[in-house]
């Protein structure tokens, strides 16, 4: 039974990944922003864990406050080893550069970049122990920055840099690192994006979050002789 730690399991892409891993009977640690969300998310997945013999654990850590993660984890039971560390949580706020305030920049960079770096730092010993895998769910915006997307795109460009550096640093330890770059995906985040863009939302037009989840699983399932480093996923037709 493999052990995974996943952020963002309460919604969208992360929820689909968590469900798929529990359906395999794996042990899944869900990181939630507070105790209330941890309880709700655990309740959401308890039936699937029970049906398939998967093990469900929760961790509380607010990714909006990366510098407090270390303290928060010091007061909780942590996984002893991790076959995969799956960074899926994220936030978005659109706006022109002449509108975006430092508050938006700070919140976006904290949740999308600094928290994944800090969580990786804190969990690497457990990942190294089993020559595990670190996956960052990035975005097309991590490769190209369009108008109105500066803060989010900057955070995701930074996330690519984090993944690329980590891959080089950890190769000798046998740790694999994958960035997944989805296009628009039908999740609550995309509903918010459409609202901010003033556009009508049609979920059928975008990638099913379960399909993005399959790409994450493809990366971690690959045999050790191969290393999927970067995966771009676009809406199909
Ligand atoms: N949807 C898209 O079109 C799209 C496209 C490309 C890339 N992505 C990326 O895919 C990833 C997943 O996005 P999604 O569309 O599935 O988004 P989503 O449905 O909005 O889910 C985001 C998840 O992140 C969690 N989260 C946010 N802030 C947090 C915090 N401070 N502490 C702990 N958890 C926090 C949320 O927790 P709560 O459940 O407690 O709110 C939620 O579970 C993100 O990294 C996003 O940037 C999405």
From TrEMBL:
<comment type="similarity">
    <text>Belongs to the short-chain dehydrogenases/reductases (SDR) family.</text>
</comment>
<dbReference type="GO" id="GO:0016020">
    <property type="term" value="C:membrane"/>
</dbReference>
<dbReference type="InterPro" id="IPR057326">
    <property type="entry name" value="KR_dom"/>
</dbReference>
<protein>
    <submittedName>
        <fullName>SDR family oxidoreductase</fullName>
    </submittedName>
</protein>
<feature type="domain" description="Ketoreductase">
    <location>
        <begin position="2"/>
        <end position="209"/>
    </location>
</feature>
<dbReference type="GO" id="GO:0016491">
    <property type="term" value="F:oxidoreductase activity"/>
</dbReference>
<dbReference type="InterPro" id="IPR002347">
    <property type="entry name" value="SDR_fam"/>
</dbReference>
<dbReference type="InterPro" id="IPR036291">
    <property type="entry name" value="NAD(P)-bd_dom_sf"/>
</dbReference>
<dbReference type="InterPro" id="IPR020904">
    <property type="entry name" value="Sc_DH/Rdtase_CS"/>
</dbReference>
<dbReference type="Pfam" id="PF00106">
    <property type="entry name" value="adh_short"/>
</dbReference>
<keyword id="KW-0560">Oxidoreductase</keyword>
């Amino acid at each position: 039974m493999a052990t995974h730690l996943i952020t963002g399991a309460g919604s969208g892409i992360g929820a689909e990944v968590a469900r798929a891993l529990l359906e395999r009977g794996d042990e899944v640690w869900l990181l939630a922003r507070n105790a209330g969300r941890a309880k709700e998310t655990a309740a959401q997945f308890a039936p699937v864990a029970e049906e398939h013999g998967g093990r469900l654990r929760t961790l509380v850590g607010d990714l909006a406050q990366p510098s407090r993660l270390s303290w928060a984890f010091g007061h909780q039971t942590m996984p002893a080893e991790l076959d995969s560390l799956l960074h899926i949580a994220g936030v978005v706020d659109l706006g022109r550069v002449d509108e975006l305030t430092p508050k938006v920049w700070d919140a976006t960079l904290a949740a999308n970049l600094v928290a994944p770096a800090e969580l990786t730092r804190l969990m690497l010993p457990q990942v190294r122990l089993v020559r595990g895998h670190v996956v960052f769910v990035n975005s097309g915006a991590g490769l190209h920055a369009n108008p109105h997307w500066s803060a989010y795109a900057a955070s995701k460009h930074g996330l690519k840099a984090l993944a690329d550096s980590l891959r080089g640093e950890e190769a000798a330890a046998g740790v694999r690192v994958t960035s997944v770059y989805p296009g628009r995906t039908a999740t609550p985040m995309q509903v918010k994006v459409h609202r901010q863009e003033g556009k009508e939302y049609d979920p059928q037009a975008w990638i099913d979050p379960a399909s993005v989840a399959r790409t994450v699983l493809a990366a971690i399932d690959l045999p050790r002789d191969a290393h999927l480093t970067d995966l771009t996923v676009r809406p199909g037709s």
